[in-house]
Amino acid sequence: MRSISKFALVVSLSFLFSPQVMADEEITGNSYFNKAGLKLFSGIANVATGWIELPKNIHLTGQKDTPASGLTIVTLGVFQGAWYAINRTGCGVLDLVTFMIPTNPLVDPIFVWNDFLRETEFKGYQFN
């Protein structure tokens, strides 16, 4: 009986001190914490920098090849920029409130300073 107890103790200690096999989850852009963190950070950044859509859209409207005058281009750029600034800020607030649900951010490009010379697109939630 004593030898069986010793054998059971040795076997159980070997399991206790053996390296455990863990699930092999890569830390990539698809993990829950990375997606939730990106959504939280992009929400904060979009709330703080949503107003940059105003000068961005004035510039983009001026770059288009249209026969409109300078005042018309600036006016269209101001209206579009104000609308996009409201949308980016609102999407940032929504991303802040729902960051724990790891969806893709609502705005493309995610940050206003990314790909500054491309018009912003607003998308719905996408689960990937």
Topology:
Layout: H1 2-17, H2 32-49, H3 53-63, H4 70-97, E1 107-108, E2 121-122
Antiparallel strand pairs: 1-2
Helix pairs in contact: 2-4, 3-4
Q: In angstroms, what separates the terminal alpha carbons?
A: 58 Å
Contiguous helical run count: 4
- Whole-angstrom Rg: 26 Å
Shape: rod-shaped
Fraction of residues in β-strands: under 5%
Main sheet record: 2 strands, antiparallel
* Assembly state of the chains shown: single chain
Helix vs. strand class: mainly alpha
Kindly state the mean pLDDT as a whole number?
78
- Main sheet strand line-up: 1-2
Low-confidence stretches: 21-27
What can be said about this structure in brief?
This protein has helices spanning 2-17, 32-49, 53-63, 70-97; strands at residues 107-108, 121-122. The chain is mainly alpha-helical and 128 residues long. Helix 2 crosses helix 4 and helix 3 (53-63) crosses helix 4 (70-97).
Fold and architecture overview:
With 128 residues, the protein is mainly α. The chain has four helices and two strands, in the order H-H-H-H-E-E. The protein has a two-stranded antiparallel sheet with strand order 1-2. The protein is rod-shaped. Residues 21-27 have low confidence and may be disordered.
